[in-house]
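Q: Please design a sequence for this.
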């Protein structure tokens, strides 16, 4: 049985990927410092899969503690989710973002090298396409970013490109997520943001349960189908299955013999089409039977009018594409929020 180390596995996306890994019969070890998550996630994973992953409450910045995990277990591959991810906050405390995201990645990659673990799936983001590339975004576009969070993703991708160029034992998948929403269909796991949600779907679900009065729709005058921002929303379970496909490809083609040269590859994980904010609101109202009050507000600084993915590379090379619709995303997000109005503390 292969052993997969999942950094940040207690978080929104990581927890769903852990479920998919366990369902594939893989052995899962989570390393997470719980700075944006809760140990209740372990019980929920257990309720869904009948298995509890091994959990180490370790900060990735702590090289000795991380090394001890690698020493104790025979790890076949790493999926690296751990990061701070709030775009707005990253402009207020950029040094904390660079320190946490970049340093913890460097510590991890160095420990992996020391223990000769070269299979890596890295959580990147559509944010690496910056603001000047035409849509749909294609993997070979030049990368840039408009905020410190996004720059940490560009920098880590570049660090990994350099590592792979220098040492062909590295076998790396860079997964660029578009807008992950939704929740596990059981209603046991979902997105549980601290404080006021920054992202659209958790804000909508909190309006639906009465925790917030109204959604501020950021901008009603974009050059889009209805004037509101358009994004490529992807169900978190489809996203999790994309990780399984990427991992299968890495493990099936271990790159340890210095022969292959193309040992690092980026993939867009999105649906390949865009929905406007008002289309999401409407779909959510249909799924939940709740009226979502909204107010058209000024544009949010740094937002783009519209972006979505070209997903042909993931389809051709990984054999992956999304199977869940916007309606599924809304139904599952509502199922999670209505059963857990206070998130994991409900
Ligand atoms: P999340 O905050 O729910 O999960 C991240 C986890 O990492 C948390 O459990 C947190 O406690 C942990 N963590 C952070 N710093 C750590 C450290 N130094 N040591 C150990 N653990 C640490 O976020 P998420 O939405 O699940 O995102 C997972 C990854 O996907 C992140 O890298 C994020 O940048 C990326 N991503 C997310 C989105 C999105 O919209 N959610 C989109 C694109 C990319
Ligand atoms: C979606 C749409 C908003 C909230 C962010 C990061 C990106 C990636 C995914 C990590 C936009 C509008 C939102 C609200 C609104 N994360 N909106 N009212 O900004 O596309 O992407 O998450 O890598 O890097 O930037 O996602 O959910 O914040 O916004 O009108 O209260 O909803 O303007 O059009 P975004 P989002």
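A: Design:
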């Amino acid at each position: 049985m292969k052993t997969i180390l999942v950094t940040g596995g207690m978080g929104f996306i990581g927890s769903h990927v852990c479920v998919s890994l366990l369902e594939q019969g893989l052995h899962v070890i989570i390393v997470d410092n719980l700075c944006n998550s809760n140990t209740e996630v372990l019980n929920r994973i257990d309720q869904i899969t009948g298995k509890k992953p091994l959990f180490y409450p370790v900060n990735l910045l702590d090289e000795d503690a991380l090394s001890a995990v690698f020493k104790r277990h025979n790890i076949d591959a790493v999926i690296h989710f751990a990061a701070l991810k709030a775009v707005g906050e990253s402009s207020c405390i950029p040094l904390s973002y660079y320190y946490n995201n970049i340093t913890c990645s460097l510590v991890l990659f160095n420990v992996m090298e020391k223990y000769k673990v070269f299979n890596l799936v890295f959580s990147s983001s559509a944010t690496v396409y910056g603001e000047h590339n035409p849509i749909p975004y294609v993997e070979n576009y030049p990368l840039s970013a408009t905020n410190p969070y996004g720059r940490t993703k560009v920098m880590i991708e570049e660090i990994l490109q350099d590592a792979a160029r220098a040492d062909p034992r590295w076998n790396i998948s860079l997964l660029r997520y578009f807008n992950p929403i939704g929740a596990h269909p059981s209603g046991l796991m979902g997105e549980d943001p601290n404080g006021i949600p920054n992202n659209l779907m958790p804000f909508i679900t909190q309006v639906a349960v009465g925790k917030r009065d109204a959604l501020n729709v950021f901008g009603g005058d974009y050059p889009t189908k209805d004037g509101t921002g358009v994004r490529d929303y992807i169900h978190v379970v489809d996203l999790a299955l994309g990780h399984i496909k990427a991992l299968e490809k890495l493990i099936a083609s271990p790159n340890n013999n210095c022969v292959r040269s193309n040992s690092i590859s980026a993939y867009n994980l999105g649906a390949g089409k865009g929905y406007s904010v008002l289309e999401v609101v409407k779909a959510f109202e249909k799924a939940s039977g709740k009226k979502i009050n909204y107010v058209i507000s000024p544009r949010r600084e740094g937002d783009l009018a519209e972006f979505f993915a070209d997903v042909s590379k993931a389809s051709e090379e990984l054999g992956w594409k999304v199977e869940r619709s916007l309606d599924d995303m809304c139904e599952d997000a509502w199922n999670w929020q209505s059963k857990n109005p206070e998130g994991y503390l409900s």
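Q: Thanks. Anything notable?
A: The chain has two domains: 3-179+234-269, 200-231+271-308+323-345. The chain has a mean pLDDT of 96.
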